[in-house]
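Shapes recur. Our protein:

. . .
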Amino acid sequence: MRVLCLTVILLTGCGSMQEGFQKGFDKSFAESCRTEAMKKGADQKIADKYCDCALARFKETKSMEAATQFCLAQVKSNSK
């Protein structure tokens, strides 16, 4: 019984840590992405759309190259 209680406590605590890490990562990714996109000439609206797409796609593919290619194409097609 003690092992079960300890396991539940550890899993609950680890889940909170992972959630906190994920929120921090998402925020840092978005800020960094937006800053770089705007340095390259994108206005804030376009930068936000691109960065939202890039974060979601990165989480799916675990590839920044794939996220960049896909989201650039999305932003270009939506701006026409």
